[in-house]
Amino acid sequence: MNKLIFAILFLGLFSCSSDDIDDQSLLPNFPVNEVVFLNNPEYINLQVVGGWAYTQGGISGIIIYHMNTNNYIAFERSAPHFTPQTCSKMVVKNGMTMVCPCDDSEFNILNGAPMTDGVKYAARQYRVVVVGNTLQITNF
Question: Cβ(33)–Cβ(129) under 8 Å?
Fold first, then answer.
């Protein structure tokens, strides 16, 4: 009996609290390695600073934003504060925010930061490498 009590206390001391969960814990790990050709018609909006587009890849797709002359940023479309589901696929609103249709929570398209009170997870960001008119989007 004493061993059982000790085991319960030991596990309680070393278990993680919800505050220790990292900002990516609700989304599964998924390999991302996408190539985007900026000359393709579906990416015409990415040719101007402030333009954005959706592309495939990731869990629910990817949002790409053209930040400045040669810098692009890419985010997972699956909202970070939900396990992936139909309504958690984020959409771009007014070209400046990403919105989760499940609860209308908003995220900054420049850095992925949550803009809605109570949401503590940032949007998952991917690496973007620019080579000429091609973007390489990865998570490694």
Answer: no
d(CA 100, CA 7): 41
Look at residue 8 and tell me if it is in a domain: no
pTM: 0.82
Q: How many structural domains is the chain composed of?
A: 1
83 lies in which domain range? 41-138
The identity of residue 29, as a single letter, is N
pLDDT value for 39:
96
Mean pLDDT of 107-119: 97
The CATH number of residue 83's host domain is 2.102.10.10
The DSSP letter of residue 89 is B
At 72-94, the pLDDT tens digits run: 999 999 999 999 999 999 999 99
Q: How far apart are CA 18 and CA 28, in angstroms?
A: 17
